[in-house]
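User: structure tokens for this one?
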Amino acid sequence: MGLFSRKKDKPVAEPAPEEETDPGIGPWDEESHPERSGLIDAGALLLVPVKGASIQFTVDRNRKVVLGVVYLKDNSAIQLQVFAAPKSRGLWDDVRADLVSSIASQGGKFEETTGEYGKEVDARMPVPGNAKGVAPVRYIGIDGPRWLLRVTVSGKAALDAELRGRLVHEVLDGLVVVRGQVPHPPREILELRIPRQKNDEDSQPTKLSPPKRGPEIAEVR
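Assistant:
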């Protein structure tokens, strides 16, 4: 069952109608979506091959750590980062508070909004070297069982809600988080790895681009 496909329990006396949800909406936890066929194994994330998109990996070469996955399509970027979370509660509320403080300290502006996945941050960040330039960025956080997925949308989709919704669903609806059983402190980034490229173009419609030096967006601590 997907993260957003939980249904309300029915009372015994008067059965209530089931909550209308789309069973295909992700992201998914590995335990509720063990099927890996057709997905790209990137360690803590099993990625969806999105037609017409390329995938890059944000890498900290000093620490030799893959920090995130970036889908590029339609003049937009969708970055995925997954972090360890406590078993007892979600992290997004705390991380979001730190995030908006970081945005403000960098001279950016933000508004907290409510989207399909819950609370989001709509930010306008200053562009280095351009005193009047601003870059739109949308931050989405999704709490799962012992993990937090942070989705960062930039480019055209950060401003175009219809495009953003389409691209985010293309990336997330089949995405699987592999948390594993190894203990991690809260907020520690879960290990990602660059998958091997396949030679069969028909079976792999998504182009894997060379790794990009990171971090592109600072890890929230």
